[in-house]
Amino acid sequence: MAGSALQNTRKIPVLDLQLSSFRDPQVFFHAPTQRWIMCVALSRAHQIAFFGSTNLLQWTELSRFGPSGITGVDYECPNLVEVPIDGGKTAWVLFVSINPGAPQGGSATQYFVGTFDGTRFVPESDTTEFVDFAKDFYALQFFTNVPSGNPVSIGWLNNWQYCQETPANSWRGVMSLPRRISLAPDTTQRLKLIQQPEDLAPLRGTASDATPPSRMDAGSSWETPLPAAAAHEVRISVEIDAQPAGLPPGDKGRSGRFVLNFLNSNEETLSIGFDAFTAQLWLDRGKLKGFSHPFFTNSFSAALTPDQRKITLHIVLDKCSVEVFVNNGQQTGSALLFPATPLDRLRLSATGAGATLSHFELFPLKQTVRAEEGPI
Fold first, then answer.
1. Domain boundary among 168, 197, 226
2. Is 33 exposed, middle or buried (0-12, 13-18, 19+ CB in 10 A)?
3. Residues 209 and 122 in one domain
4. Position 338 pLDDT exceeds 80
5. Is the residue at 310 inside a domain?
6. Where does the record place the Glycosyl hydrolase family 32 N-terminal domain (predicted)?
């Protein structure tokens, strides 16, 4: 019952609906009802089926969810997880991946917040929410029995539109960073997903002593070499002036933007920026030269809280990927990157309005996987 031992059985399969698109099961123990719960994708029907069992051998269908949200062609890789809410309560979140047919193109993972009584999942609203604002995060899954008790997820940092054609050496493809998951109400009191990287401390080298000015006027920039490392972590908090430079009071005629450019001498640039007067963030990989594909979209954006002029960014830049965590995980963007030569410098720029920096950290990160045939 506790799931501490495995006993082989000849009874295979234990559940068969005679459907070719019945797959991707997730199984967990539901303590209040003292039974195992399995959620399975009925892919082409755009439904998630819930089954219950007391012995993992005999299963009874309990309920179905969907079609709901954006269906795409297939529902895939469901996960139902109880997630903590800031303040001590919890809610159930059903994660459903779709492919193809995501708004950005190809594959993506959406989520629904609601209740689960051991039989049926009921969403609290019909709003469709996505885990990631960029294009390369799919098939989110959760670790079980995490010592902290907090839910921790991981995703496939890729997209089915081009995953079999991206540059490769000894391997192709990558997983995301593990992410600590919680919920918090937004300005409308609707619960939204919060994602933050899980414990990067063991990977950090010595922090860079590069220090940008605490005050940057409109039109100014600051630049530093990136430390020699397998990957890099940047943490920065910045507030953009309420008044654009050179305009009379009350006139917001131009944008006030703060931009982080990761670049190299090959005129390649990865741009991550914040426009304070529209409260939007962007991620632009369009000036990298190492990969071209008709579905490899150049840029992505996320809408933040209206009238927000302060932003906190937590960025992890790897050899072929970037993950951006915005405002303590309120938004996340994950994207593959293929520069022709490594990005080795960081430039900060303020345009249209001045900016005040309250926090900046730059860390080299250690390599976690040994390259067998050279770097990607």
1. 197
2. middle
3. no
4. yes
5. yes
6. 18-197
